[in-house]
Amino acid sequence: MTDASTDDTPDILSPEVVKNTLYLIDGSGYIFRAYHALPPMNRGDGTPVNAVFGFSAMLMKLVEEIDAQHLAVIFDSARETFRNEIYPAYKAQRPEPPEDLRPQFSIIRDAVRAFNVPSIEMPGFEADDLIATYAKEARAKGMDVVIVSSDKDLMQLVRDGVTMLDPIKNRPIGPDEVMEKFGVAPDKVVDVQSLAGDSVDNVPGVPGIGVKTAAQLITDYGDLETLLARATEIKQPKRRESLIEYAEQARISRELVKLRDDVPLEVSVDQLEVKDPEHATLLSFFEENNFKRLVARLQALEVQEGEAPSSLGMAAEIAPSETAYETVVEEADLKRWIAAAMEAGTVAVDTETTSLNAMSAKLVGISLSVEAGKACYIPVGHGAGDGADQGNLLDAPTERPKQIDKKRALELLKPMLEDSSVLKVGHNMKYDWLIFRRHGIEVAPVDDSMLISYVLEGGLHGHGMDELAELHLDHKTIPFKEVAGSGKDQVTFDKVPLDKATEYAAEDADITGRLHRLLKPRLRESHVLTLYETVERPLVPIIGEMERAGIKVDREVLADLSKDFARRMGEYELDIYKLAGREFNIGSPKQLGEILFDELGLQGGKKGKTGAYATGAEVLEALATQHDLPAKILEWRQLAKLKSTYADTLVEQINPETGRVHTAFAMAATSTGRLSSSDPNVQNIPVRTEEGRRIRRAFVAEKGHRLLSVDYSQIELRIVADIGGIEALRQAFRDGIDIHAMTASQVFGVPLDQMDPMTRRKAKAINFGIIYGISGFGLARQLGVEQGEAAAYIRAYFERYPGIRDYMDRAKAEAKKQGYVTTLFGRRCHVPGITDKNPARRAFAERQAINAPIQGTAADIIKRAMIRLPAALEKASLKARMLLQVHDELLFEVPEAEIEKTSALVREVMEGATRPVLELSVPLVAEAGVGDDWEAAH
């Protein structure tokens, strides 16, 4: 599997590869572990089922938690294999399985089928050989492999991209664990086993040599054959004689312990895809075997929006009867919580700081929770502080309350936060990830309950923790103002007393964990797990790094802009006073409304609930045809906004440590999947006006670098052509024809070689207007024509491209039927007002339903590109940094010498971002520009 890179080597960080992990479950090995771990259990007809229950519980947990796209359970087929031909005594002494285990083998295979998981076995080979072969095949396809087993014989397979997972202890097994077990690296395990033998499997080995001695010998001599060839050099007489006498026996043992990786597979790796189990089938299997706990667990996972949890188990996980929050100020207590997190394998994490801006915030404390109702708060920056974190406080307490030194606390937390076997759950995890990143900790892997909610119900409600806690848990969280005050009396969190801080902060971690337990299972039920795992979750560190990088702004350019805007605003003010007949507060909507409608007598004035006239942009644009004053007001407002929002404010937003501006990207703010930004909002800088473009000139590259802007050309129109099935538009895009001229030719009957700019402009307005469900009135105002003429344009457009109308009707019908529409990648965009009785609100919702799949698909595509780009750049040894994402554009800071290669690579990755999941019927085109500032690059 490859991405759109410059060769056929898989992009190891692309979502298709990272998330395309093959899990191979050692079914035979686990059966015996489950059998011996659990007490006897019998179902109604007396059949023993303890091993079946243990196996089913393990498989259920694994299927819920893993991020794999491929999974299989591998079983032994029979006792006799090719190894018995090599050495007839192999496993000959093994006793027959216990009587109460034998009938469970077939039931366990039934369990695997009930879970809809592939079950593989092959006569003549052991399960371990099949696992070795599948691991080899999977790695050849660029997939990672996780072998679910703790069997020492499988440890020889551990290598780059192949790890093991002990399902009982939930402990990963990698090279370090293999070294601990055998005293050698995985590639030398076979040699050690060949010498030490295995009494359980009746592998003879060399008498008198155990694992420890074998490891030392192989370390000293490199491999088995070298050791046997130089056995006469061994100083210990008994050891030397054994190695010489039993050399051939060691070689036979090697053939017995070495796993075959060339088994002729009857089922390919590609056929081992994870599929959702049929709920009814799985429930029937659990009920038939009297697995009440698993029935309750399955029903709990089926909890739907607005319904109460259907089992006491789930209820306890999301609504414990009581809470216990602890303030951790001793290292021993912190180590205890870290150990609990390691043991649990999942921990909710939250940070408390002094600012909402992660790049300027000072870390005050950390909270952890591993089970519902229990959490801790670890203060590290309360009170007088430690210099750097507290030096900016004007009235910090004179005494610092007892707490663990921040550096020491982070030193203790770092291994757990970076441990790949421990899932760290946050709510808006990007913020916490960035806080830890600034302190040298790269938190991974992560889950985000906010993003899970967003993927499930984007557009239906907000996704803040407080709102979700009340919505899903019927729990009202402690308001921030209750612990920190409000208004001018509000203090930063480092000044909050520890008892109050603990209740507030620990609750955050606790609620985050509860939301995660409730919402994560719904991703699979709602068929949006892939979207979350391949788009939203991998994007957390990507955007975190973008925010961390920031972008340089030129103070002098901003100062000049501020002066120029102020001068021009003054000129506009004189014109406005003259047109109004008197001076007034131009920034006051109330005074402006009185001037326009009461004094000048303009038509169309409407008063709101406050009694003041509405004077928004749409009102002023409509009034501009009656009088010159509204147009001047609009110009003045634009300058005032640009001056206050950017020219004046950007200088204040420069981070003193980095000298750059660090915008914050919101990942769960829009209904379509688009990102939004703030502090500053780089996505709202107008690009169609000279003033807006001048703002972009203030964003500059560092010395020795240039800015590279790459954006998708007409991506939303291309998506319209694809999903609307409009062959004429598809072909135009394939042929590289000017799409607006093409539309003008099709709609207005003007040959392409006779196209005039005005006709093309009309077609362009229609093309983009259709995406947003524009009305005849809206198009008429945009083009400056009569409403009837604009309506005629729209009718002609639909007649020429009937697929557009069909798509719009389908989108509205889909939204009305299920309450949401979907993008080509399965993102659900909820449209809550689609059945509103108010015609205006319903019409607005219908326009949303039409636009959301288009805009949302475009958002999904650029997100997929963003996820692939850092790895692609690193692979190509390019040092470019991704700084900003603005709708369909990505902005990079690139060393001057690498511009050409970086531009080509970024364009290639962006143009291939849909593959291999989706092949559009039209090509994606990414266009690049380079400059010393953002405007020049764009």
Q: Any descriptors?
A:
DNA-directed DNA polymerase; EC 2.7.7.7; elongated; alpha/beta; 39 helices; Alpha-Beta Plaits; disordered N terminus; 938 residues; single chain; 3 domains; Rossmann fold; DNA binding; Nucleotidyltransferase, domain 5; RNaseH-like_sf; DNA repair
- Count of structural domains: 3
- Number of E-type strands: 22
Average pLDDT: 87
Secondary structure tally, helices: 39
What about the largest sheet?
A: 6 strands, mixed
CATH superfamily of the largest domain: 5'-nuclease
| SS content category | alpha/beta
Shape: elongated
User: What is the CATH top level name of the largest domain?
Assistant: Alpha Beta
Distance between the termini: 33 Å
Oligomer: single chain
C-alpha Rg (nearest Å) = 33 Å
Strand numbers in spatial order across the main sheet: 3-2-1-4-5-6
Assign the CATH topology of the largest domain.
Rossmann fold
CATH architecture of the largest domain: 3-Layer(aba) Sandwich
Helix share of residues?
Answer: 40-55%
Strand residue content: 5-15%
The stretches of 5 or more residues where confidence is low (pLDDT under 50) are 1-19, 303-315, 385-398
Domain 3'-5' exonuclease: 325-524
Catalytic activity: DNA(n) + a 2'-deoxyribonucleoside 5'-triphosphate = DNA(n+1) + diphosphate
Domain 5'-3' exonuclease: 18-275
Family: Belongs to the DNA polymerase type-A family.
